[in-house]
Amino acid sequence: MARVLFICLLLGLPSALVAQGRELPDFTELAERQGPTVVNISTTQMRERRASPQIPNLEED
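The structure corresponding to this sequence follows.
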């Protein structure tokens, strides 16, 4: 079991180091150029309310 864990660590470590070395892209210039074209689209959904089951011996307010 220890050998399997060791092999997994050896195989997974290089990919983790490569992933950490990459930087996120800089979108500031793109946002400044395309800023006026960006819109906010939101949606709402109306759902029907289900009747809750009655619990016996429960006082109603």
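The mean pLDDT is 74.
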